[in-house]
């Protein structure tokens, strides 16, 4: 059944040929009034639209209100969002709460007050976001959420997310192949972040089913998760000698785990299993003596673009789903080394499933693919 969402868009049509060339892609203030920098250089290719865009979408104003923008994954996601917005001719404003939930709620209010047509809410906590999301929907602003579960407390939100259960299963299947049953393991994760909670549910099943002895759980989700988690991992590994593997299902946690274990003698053979992928992650996995065995991954650039396309379809009244999920793949250290994959471009060539160009597409949407 098609979801009926009240918004300010109709079905009048115009040609889209020159829209991308004349549209401005703007950047709003982050939490301290500074522009959000973009450190990734991934450049997508654009497949031009073959049909006309709904007239009321032309030059639409979109805000993305993100809980945190630091880290490889988030920077790539925003890169994909920016490039898809530019291709559509949308005006994009970015709000970055830098890991502060109260700030994200305030910035959501600011985005609503800025007269935008639609809002992407990316990560965060339902308790702090649902009042603003409901306010936005009540004012006719389309809302789409990525990796934050606000649909249960705000009717009219489109939910998007990675298939986190599959992502965890892919990695933990490999971890079981490597370490077997009844062994001591470590865990780096936090509670309250929707995708991490979904991965945690799978982890707990594998721990129980395989009689793994979880000796510690640690980690810190901040604007500097890798550096903040590293000393916590070091302390936990020092206090719990004998672990054979660590599961750290977010690449900033994985990087913090690698750094932390480097500080503890006797952990050289500890295997590390993670999530997400980036140029920096590939370099770490390929490095001589690297502990990072496998990661479950999507291409965040492709997801950022696909979420924006999903939002555009919803605004046009053409989306037939309330939940859109993006499938992950397993990336292993052997694959990267054996196929000499040195960066994301090489990985995309080797694993075409990472390309989400057919997700949330329409003849009137110019599709950015990576």
UniProtKB/TrEMBL annotation:
Keywords assigned: Signal
Q: Does the keyword Signal apply?
A: yes
Pfam families the record matches: Peripla_BP_4
- Protein name, UniProt field: Substrate-binding domain-containing protein
Write the signal peptide boundaries.
Answer: 1-28
Predominant subcellular localization, coarse grouping: other
Q: Where would I find the Periplasmic binding protein domain in this sequence?
A: 62-318
The root-end lineage is:
Bacteria, Bacillati, Actinomycetota, Actinomycetes, Micrococcales
By sequence similarity, the record places it as follows: Belongs to the bacterial solute-binding protein 2 family.
| Localisation | Cell envelope
